[in-house]
Amino acid sequence: MNNQEMRGSPPTPTPQTRLSGLWRVLSLPMLIFLSIPILALFLRISPPSLLENLRQPDVLQAIGLSLGTTLISTAIIILAGTPLAYSQARGQFRFSRMIDTLIDLPLVLPPAVAGVALLIAFGRRGLFGGVLSDLGINIAFTPLAVIIVQVFVAAPFYIKSATLGFSNIDQELEQSAALDGASSPQIFRFLTIPLSWSALLGGGMMSWARALGEFGATIIFAGNFPGRTQTMPLAIYIGFELDLDIALTLSVILILLSFLALFIARNVLNRDWMSG
Amino acid sequence: MRGYTWIFLLLLAFSSACRGANDARSPSGETLTIFAAASLSEAFTEIAAEFEASYPGSEVAINFAGSQQLAQQISHGATADIFASADSQQIENVIGIGRVNGGSEQPFTHNQLAVVLPGDNPGGIFEFNDLAKPGVKLILADASVPVGHYSQEMLERASTQTDFGDQFKEDVLANVVSYEENVRAVLTKVVLGEADAGIVYLSDFNGAQEEDVQMVAIPDEINITAGYYIAPLNDSHNLERGMEFLKLVLSPKGQDILTRHGFNLRGQHE
User: How many contacts (CB atoms, under 8 Å) link A and B?
Assistant: First the structure.
């Protein structure tokens, strides 16, 4: 994320850029390797059959559920993650390094571990299962379970990006605004958020893309029920054995959505959004 | 000092890699790869141990998953010597793509369906009919999994019986909260108490702790007898060994292990 700023200025010819021809050639194998599977998917399915599969109720249900749950989970991540990111960026208190590690943890945990952990915490027999069922809240096998999984696995992307964005703001700016009489919410609303806008939106997009692709923890914690917990990745996994075409269709859509999210996160927002 | 450590680690990695390669090639230490239905997990693990004991130096590696998943892996080129499926359909699928010769498949055991409940029976289920009670949380295997389509077939049969009524299947399916990708996932979630009931194989009860689960029998007249089939893959490099394994499965010893794990109950084994 640090090189975001560097990319903005046009490169000046240096010995480094003259070497770039060789570097480009050397980078081809990896680039080709990364593109081939994606390309193969697109080549395997013809646009007409893609459109035809799109009309299947199961496919539509999965897309609808995926979009609905990921939008909610991304909103939760932003609402609840922003304060955490801000306090991580500003306060260097005793546990901040430990908290940092904790935030990173879902990034490296195998999804199966996340699924089992969530089941043990929020399942019917889990740590909070009794309390929740007394309150009449039932999580397992509902869209709520899908959202909880997505928040758990995708939040770190937003929080990390937002923390970095907040840290890059010159603290003197906030201090001088405070001296001029701006209240703390005013500073956050009119100074901090605009200055870190691209990091926030970029992080949100990354989180959304991760939530969209979530599979392993979902099938363990939320189960698989069309229209209720069967998101696109689950429909691909289950559909793969019944009807490859449905799996291909959903895969193509998922790739397009993920690409869009990453593209927005990486490029559009990295241009000097605010000054433009 | 640091450099030596690295060299040492590299040598270690290299030597173990070589050893791995030798193992795979040496004739006495051939690894037999078995693809087996998830429900066979305990029984086949035991049969494999038996096989390794009677052929010293041989190794059996078993890939347990839903039969439909195994068939899919095989049709996409996975290397295997033997395929043991929980139904005939998946064997036919791999015959269809030409990796198993038609006619080489053999029935080797059979299984029945049963209802599994968490030990404390939170759904208050005492007989099979109770599955249709509103509010019961039921887990089935997905229809793509053998046990899943057997479950659907069984419910279909129940609906044609006057004891249950033609609404029965619909009412039961309305209670389903999840369609899992293999039978063990159904069992695990019921053992964890996440659902009130699940439909699994009778043999699955032998894998579960007794205090964790209860069983409700499915009436004989609607229960399904699931025929399991085993076949060698026609491109196996280990055909002879593979056939030995197959023979062991079919032998009284192998059948005894299967029976001990809850297979072969009721009905005659053809």
Answer: 55
